[in-house]
Design goal:
Number of helices of chain B: 7
Largest sheet of chain A: none
Helix content of chain A: over 70%
Largest interface: A-B, 75 and 73 residues
Largest sheet of chain B: 6 strands, antiparallel
Radius of gyration of chain A: 19 Å
Shape of chain B: globular
Helix content of chain B: 10-25%
Number of strands of chain A: 0
CATH topology of the largest domain in chain B: Jelly Rolls
Oligomer: heterodimer
CATH architecture of the largest domain in chain B: Sandwich
Number of strands of chain B: 11
Strand content of chain B: 25-35%
Distance between the termini of chain A: 45 Å
Distance between the termini of chain B: 50 Å
Structural class of chain A: mainly alpha
């Protein structure tokens, strides 16, 4: 059992915080929904903490964490989601590379998202707010709005595309 | 990518968790062969996560100050906090939770956070029995700790570790629960409670490391609506009331929600703790009767082996039992007549 060491915990937390956004994107890209992502990230964090050794650099931690995440996703798929299609190892690797290469851009896009949200008309913002509120079920939300779930999914998809377009333009225009 | 590109549909279905095996295989093929599509897919995932995070941050924690601090959130949700600025205190909670913020009735009935505590202040609960005033944790021996025994806090950097089934000054008696309790003052929300449509939701996360004897430990909690503060000078009377209610509940002599005597309504729930990775979440909802002014919240871990052996509570220690991220929220039940 790991004996807690306060200074090591601080080092771990610092490195983990730096890596966590990319790590989550990677894990989510391999799984089917956010609940799965949360479950796997919980295991990833626990494994990283258990096996963490002092002296890691940001880069070495990120690489190691990515490898751990990959193993945890595979374990999750094996144990809990066997009925689902699992991407091949080559795609795991390609996505890991993409996330690593794009990590700065992804972070910038998350920042740009705030501006882009403000540009949306109020009803669309409210719809996103409702759809992304914790625990909300799209089916239930659709019923309340007297729409079909499919129609709501598609509307949300269009809004996401709009936001992606906006964040890319915001970065291109150098507003951030 | 062009907005009409049919491959966008594959991304949509995958992100929503609705993709069939065939559609996932088609997505995989595109990810394998088209770097541009792969970039777009990763950006889509990034956006989806950022939106979900922003949704989670839209409820402001009330802190653990005495009384209530449930002011409505100020400003639109996406402006309340930078999407990319996550403080260390919430870093773990962002992904350790499954549904940390209760949300009932989108668009029409958001939960108001009455109380939230993940012990980040480091302030340890009182260990001299049940509290008889609002705003403090009290109960049996416990301590606030950081990561230990391979357990990371569910939220933030600290969590509560339960230690023993007794408290300071407790008379020798049989006992097998380590209990923590808190009284929450609801009077500020009188306007939402006087018609009997207020629903109080409690959530907490439990964790156990001991895997030697499956089924030995149970986690649980109780909610008691109160018309008034307990007037007992001795907290043991409250304790006795709580235990009696829980025993009645366990014996299934009556259903939850029809508490007699001590409180006008109560709700109880317990579950078997396991040592599997991850935290176990407990949620209880209680419809508050008109006139409710306080809530007594009790949570515990019980040792069933000690219960059977009927040992003195001072001899019952809990080797690795933790509670974190307690959240109490209030919603309105629109479904009631």
């Amino acid at each position: 059992m790991r004996v807690p060491d306060p200074s090591q915990h601080d080092d771990f937390l610092r490195l983990f915080m730096e890596a966590q956004d990319s790590l989550r994107v990677y894990v989510r890209s391999l799984l089917f929904d956010q609940e799965e992502e949360r479950e796997v990230m919980q295991e990833v964090a626990a494994v990283l903490w258990r096996k963490f050794e002092a002296g890691m650099t940001r880069e070495s931690f990120a690489r190691w964490a990515c490898g751990v995440a990959r193993m945890e996703v595979l374990a999750f798929r094996r144990d809990r989601a066997r009925d689902r299609h699992c991407f091949g190892e080559d795609v795991f690797e390609l996505l890991a590379q993409t996330v690593e290469e794009q990590s700065d851009t992804l972070e910038a896009e998350r920042r740009a998202l705030e501006q882009c949200m403000e540009k949306l008309p109020a009803p669309q913002r409210q719809l996103l707010e409702a759809a992304y509120a914790p625990g909300v079920q799209i089916d239930q939300l659709a019923r309340q709005m007297k729409r079909t779930a499919m129609a709501l999914y598609k509307t949300l998809h269009r809004l996401r595309l709009q936001l992606l377009d906006c964040t890319r333009h915001t970065l291109t225009e150098g507003e951030l | 990518m062009h907005p009409n590109d049919p491959r966008l549909e594959l991304i949509r279905l995958h992100l929503e968790g609705n993709a069939t095996a065939q559609e996932s295989a088609a997505l995989e093929e595109q990810l394998r062969n088209d770097p541009g599509f792969r970039d777009f897919y990763v950006r889509s995932v990034n956006l989806d996560l950022a939106l979900a995070d922003a949704g989670k941050l839209s409820f402001r924690p009330a802190g653990d100050a005495p009384g209530l601090s449930s002011q409505p959130i100020r400003g639109p949700w996406w402006q309340r906090r930078p999407l990319s600025a996550m403080a260390a205190g919430v870093v773990f909670g962002m992904f350790f939770s499954s549904a940390v913020w209760a949300y009932v009735g989108p668009m029409t009935a958001k939960a108001v956070t009455l109380f939230r505590d993940s012990f980040e202040s480091g302030r340890a609960p009182l260990v001299n029995g049940f509290p008889i005033v609002p705003g403090v944790w009290g109960g049996d021996f416990s301590e606030v700790v950081g990561p230990q025994q391979g357990v990371l806090p569910f939220n933030g950097r600290r969590m509560l570790r339960l230690l023993r089934a007794d408290h300071s000054g407790k008379k020798p008696e049989i006992g097998y629960n380590c209990s923590l309790a808190r009284i929450i003052d609801l009077q500020q929300h009188w306007g939402h409670l006087d018609d009997g449509k207020g629903v109080l939701s409690f959530e907490a996360s439990f964790k156990m490391t001991d895997s030697a004897e499956p089924g030995r430990y149970r986690g649980g909690a109780s909610l008691f609506a109160l018309y008034d503060l307990p007037d007992q000078h001795d907290d043991s009377e409250i304790f006795a009331h709580v235990r009696r209610e829980q025993q009645i509940f366990r014996a299934e002599a009556k259903s939850a929600g029809a508490s007699a005597g001590f409180s006008p309504a109560s709700a109880h729930r317990s579950f078997a703790l396991d040592a599997e990775p991850g935290w176990q979440k407990l949620r209880i909802d209680l419809l508050l009767p008109p006139g409710t002014r306080y809530l007594l919240l009790e949570m515990h871990v019980s040792d069933r082996k000690a219960e059977k052996q009927r040992v003195d509570s001072s001899q019952v220690a809990f080797p690795g039992h933790f509670i974190d991220d307690i959240h109490v929220s209030l919603t309105r039940s629109h479904s009631l007549p």
